[in-house]
Amino acid sequence: MGLELLLFYVFAAIAVVASVLVVGQRSPIYSVVLLIGSFVALAGLYVLLDAPFVAVIQIIIYAGAILVLFLFVVMLLNAEKEKAESGTRVSVAGPRRMGALLAVALVAELGWALWTAARGEAVVATGPGGDSVSSVRAIGISLFTDYAFAFEVTSLLILVAMVGAVVLAKRNV
Amino acid sequence: MPSLAFFIQIGMVFAVFTLLLLSAASMVYAERKVAALLQQREGPNRTGPAGLLQPFADVIKLMFKEELRPGGADKILFVLAPIISATAAFAAFAVVPFGAETTFFGLLDEPVGLQAADVNVAILVVFAIASMSVYGIVLAGWSSNSKYSLLGALRSASQMISYELCYGLSLAAVLVLGNSLSLREVVNQQSGTWFGFIPRWFLFLQPVGFLVYMISGVAETNRAPFDFPEAEQELVAGYHTEYSSMAFAMFFLAEYINMVTVSAVATNLFLGGWHGPLLPESLGWIWFLLKVAALLFFYIWMRWTLPRYRYDQLMQFGWKILLPVAVVNLLVTAAGVIYFGA
């Protein structure tokens, strides 16, 4: 039990610190690398929650596939380090206010979530049994029965995105 | 108080680590000897009997080389890249079983399997870590601040992403057939024979899957004839052009360990793992080693026989031939499993 708790704190710390640094970084390539670190730490947390399938999928899809594309884009565009802003304050004032507003909303939301969780009123999503997250079979069955509509709609959405990408890419050839 | 089984598990982790290092060393030796055989040369024959100590001499030489770093290189990522490559290579083997369950001559009450970690989603873990290993290469190429490195890294990344799909689809066909994500269970389903003489290997049920797996395995490990990331004539040495000393050695090590892992997983998925005739179950790991060695020999044989393809041919082949074949293979397998009731 002690080891598990220790591992939880290690992974949680890595995830939080890496996520904060992703935003704090000025170099886009470091942001991507830190985001990978954060995702891998999240996968570690999933393993501790006895959900190895979710952990592995997290690594394959997010850390493995999506962030490779991020890295690709950053490398191909040869994105420079963000310049320390100077004299451009006027143009960023609007987005800044919007960002501040959203940040306040996020903090309020998190605070509310923690508050209700602490009082034991939170709606924690639990499956029919602890089995549901650790068993691939259970995940598959609920994906193709309870969530079949959402699943199919998602695949349609991805198909639309793919067709769109092909159209955009072919236009310039 | 940690039990005896705990210490045996720790010992197994160290054993796997050491064996992987040794396997990489013997692969370097085997590669040079087989290449010499195919080219009617002698190969290394000065260091030790029949040149057997050559890989160790090479390691010592590499350790004493100067560690160079190009002027414009990104310091942190340049150091991090070979570490990611080597770590991913070692980590993937952790879930690969290489022998039947044993009690170590009655030492343990409960039998344990010969593997570093028994994970019930092992096939996916191998796949996940394979998809992480691309970062070592990409970051190496980018951080070196050299055009050859960057081009090599970009090629490698696009090659690995393209072939990862076929790799994943061939794995999926096997797990549909085996109805399990655990490598140990898939191996155990391949024990016994059909009609008394054909081993029940998935190779015979999945010939197309095996072919797709091996081809995409070669592409994943950047081996000839798909070794574009380090095509000497055009890219010097690709992503590790600027690396020297032990940092270079780590990329080299990762490449050979990845080959061993791909062969070991192929043995488990398609060639019946440690099941074989004549030997008792407890000595099954000998069969396992022989099968892996045969696949590795095939790898080397291919490298010194086939010329390198052109890069656009590789991409065309991957997306327009291999991927459709893999998809159809998966569909046919799924239909067959439903029709014959698995």
Overview of the molecule:
The complex is a heterodimer of chains A (173) and B (342). Chain A is an all-alpha fold and 173 residues long. In chain A, 79% of the residues lie in helices and 0% in strands. The N and C termini of chain A lie far apart (59 Å). The mean pLDDT of chain A is 80. Chain B has helices at residues 4-38, 54-63, 75-93, 122-143, 147-178, 183-188, 202-205, 207-220, 232-235, 245-270, 284-303, 311-339; strands at 99-102, 112-114, 193-194, 198-199. Chain B has a two-stranded antiparallel ribbon with strand order 1-2. Chain B has a two-stranded antiparallel ribbon with strand order 3-4. In chain B, helix 1 (4-38) runs parallel beside helix 11 (284-303), helix 5 (147-178) runs antiparallel to helix 8 and helix 5 runs parallel beside helix 12. The mean pLDDT of chain B is 81. Classes of the chains: A mainly alpha (173), B mainly alpha (342). Chain A binds chain B through residues 29-30, 33, 36, 40, 52-53, 56-57, 59-60, 63-65, 68, 71-72, 75-76, 136, and chain B through 74, 76-77, 80, 119-121, 124-125, 127-129, 131-132, 134-135, 138-139, 142, 150, 153-154, 157, 161, 181.
Give a short overview.
The complex is a heterodimer of chains A (173) and B (342). Chain A is an all-alpha fold.
List the keywords.
heterodimer, A: 173 residues, mainly alpha, 0% strand, B: 342 residues, two-stranded antiparallel sheet, two-stranded antiparallel ribbon, 12 helices, 3% strand
Lay out the secondary structure.
The complex is a heterodimer of chains A (173) and B (342).
Chain A: H1 2-24, H2 28-48, H3 52-77, H4 89-118, H5 131-134, H6 136-144, H7 148-171
Helix pairs in contact in A: 1-2, 2-3
Chain B: H1 4-38, H2 54-63, H3 75-93, E1 99-102, E2 112-114, H4 122-143, H5 147-178, H6 183-188, E3 193-194, E4 198-199, H7 202-205, H8 207-220, H9 232-235, H10 245-270, H11 284-303, H12 311-339
Antiparallel strand pairs in B: 1-2, 3-4
